[in-house]
Each structure stands twice: as C-alpha cells, then as structure tokens.
Design brief:
Length: 326
C-alpha cells in the first residue's frame, strides 16, 4: 500500500540533521530507542524528550493464590491467563488473567514489536500490515480473547470497569491481575489505589523466544520529542530553542517526575532514577528498559500516527471476528 501524502514527513516538520551536524550535536546523550523514534530515512527530524516503555504489571497476591510465578515466556503467560481466569456458572466473567489490552487496542501495535512487525518499509513508502509478522501478532493477540467464548462476553465484562484513572481501575480492583502498560501507570496504585493492590510489581515483558529481560528486548510504544515545524518563521531559532530544552537536564528530570514518563536524556534519566526509584521501586524496571540497546519501536514517531490508528482498528475488528485471516 502506498503511503498517502498526509502520512509523509516532508511538509510537516523540518529535518534537523544539518543543524545537528553543523553544531556537533551529540545524539549519544539520549537513550538509543528515543533516537530511533525521531529518525526517518536517514535523517533526524526531532530531538527526544521522553519514551513510553512498556512492562508487565503483576498482582503478586493473585499469582500466589494461583501458585504462579511472574510469567517469563509466552507459554507461561498463556498458562497464567488461563489459571487466573474466573468465570461464573452462567459463563459471565468475574476476573481476566491477562489480555493484550482491555478492548481499546492500546497495545495492538506495540505487541507487534515482539514479532518483529513494522508498520512501514524502511523508506516509509509502503505500509506493511500484510506481513507474516503482523499475521502472527494478530493471531497471538486473539488467542487470549477466545477463552471467553464470544467477544461480546468480554465486551460486557470490560464495560463494567470503573474509570481508568480512579480507584476503580481494573488493575487496582484485581479484575485484571496481569497487564501490559506504560511507565506512567506506575503511579496509579499510589495515586488512586489507597493501598491496593497490596503487593504488586513490574517485570520486563517476555519475547517469543522466552526471554524476559531488558537486555534482550524492550518495548517502546511511543515517545515525545521536540520538533521544528516546516513552516517555522525562523528554523534556526527553533533549532536553538529545541536543542536547549532537550539538554536542560535538571528541568527535564523535574518535569518527568511530575508527568511519569521516562526521560530520554541519559543525564536527566540518572536524576529521575535517584528520585523515583527511592519512592516507587517498580520504576527501576522501566528505566532499565529505556536504557536497553535492544529497544524496539514501531517505526519513526513522525510518520506513524494515521497508520497506527488504522492498524489498531484492524486488530480490534479481527479479535471481534469481523473477518478471518483469509
């Protein structure tokens, strides 16, 4: 599929490679995955600010009750999803062990990174949603919804969830004891949980090869960066402002402590780690994932938006059974 003009980068923002080369700008001051997010077709189009790493949140009490350990492979994840599922005599759902997401498709695309799936060809001219990697991803995702019977049974269950950012969040209430989520979610039990879940943590998400380690694979679902618009009145001044903000170490660290995302600037990340891990130890998992030299991203952040939304819609339709693989 050819990429429509609205998806193309030229015309939306200014490439920064010439400014960076002229000023000997050091891209190594940022974690590797964040730089990949702003790189497209051999050029840098933004300066990293933060990354959204994803980890497996687990309710330790629920795992202990079922005699399970934190899953470290796809096989263990499937077994945990089955063992933790609780259904009433009429088939209605009381608790889900694990699903890729609770029906919003939030991790439909990032899950593809585990299988090596990409939304675009390297030059960004082709959308690659019909590859074997995407087929494997969609089938893997759907397999976790099939035990509920028809998809409507699952939809009825999640429709009863309380507000995502409240004490009625599904992870806080124990309705979903295993969940793939971004770093900001680490603050949810403290902000909304009032001590619940009583015992929880975060672990690296396992890859298909059965290794759950930041040294092997780290999912970066998205990230934030400083961009220079293509129609900027003074691109030079915009570059200076963006590069200054992206390297303001203490300010970035302070900002992300409030926001909850992981700083892309390595020095800011060191400060962030000192503050946040002392307060919430689970942040350490996300920080290690952010630093990984084997981070995977869903193509450049600057061309992904429309295709990302369409791929999410496709994944949701496939789970519902709106169409088959053929």
């Amino acid at each position: 599929m050819a990429v429509s003009p609205s998806w193309r980068l030229p015309g939306r923002c200014t490439p920064l490679t010439r400014f960076a080369s002229r000023d000997n700008f050091d891209w190594n001051q940022f974690v590797p995955g964040s730089v990949e997010l702003v790189t497209f077709n051999g050029k840098k189009w933004g300066i990293p600010l933060s990354v959204d790493t994803a980890g497996l949140f687990f309710n330790q009490d629920a795992l202990d009750e079922a005699g399970l350990s934190v899953p470290t492979s796809f096989e263990e994840l499937s077994a945990a999803a089955e063992a933790l599922l609780v259904q009433n005599p009429d088939g209605s759902i009381e608790r889900i062990g694990w699903v890729p997401d609770v029906g919003d498709g939030s991790y439909a695309v990032p899950s593809g990174l585990l299988f090596g799936a990409k939304l675009f060809s390297e030059d960004g001219t082709q959308v690659t949603v019909d590859t074997q990697e995407w087929i494997d991803t969609l089938n893997w995702q759907r397999s976790f919804y099939e035990p509920f019977g028809d998809y409507e049974n699952f939809a009825r269950f999640v429709s009863g969830f309380g507000s995502y950012d409240s004490s009625q969040n599904f992870f806080i209430t124990g309705q979903v004891p295993l969940y793939l989520e971004a770093s900001y979610f680490t603050t949810w039990p403290e902000r909304f949980g009032n001590g619940q879940p009583a015992d929880w943590g975060v672990a690296p998400f396992p890859g298909p090869d059965g290794v759950a380690s930041a040294n092997e694979i780290a999912i970066i679902g998205s990230g934030n960066a400083f961009w220079v618009p293509a129609k900027a009145t003074d691109p030079e001044a915009s570059w200076i402002a963006a590069s200054c903000m992206a390297t303001a170490v203490q300010q970035i660290a302070d900002f992300e402590v409030v926001v909850g995302n992981i700083p892309a600037n390595k020095a800011a990340l060191d400060i962030f780690e000192t503050v946040e891990v002392a307060r919430i130890p689970a942040y350490k998992t996300f920080i290690d994932l952010a630093r990984s030299s084997n981070a995977v991203v869903p193509n450049s952040a600057v061309i992904i938006e429309t295709a990302y939304d369409r791929m999410t819609a496709l994944a949701l339709a496939y789970r519902r059974g709106d169409f088959s693989e053929g």
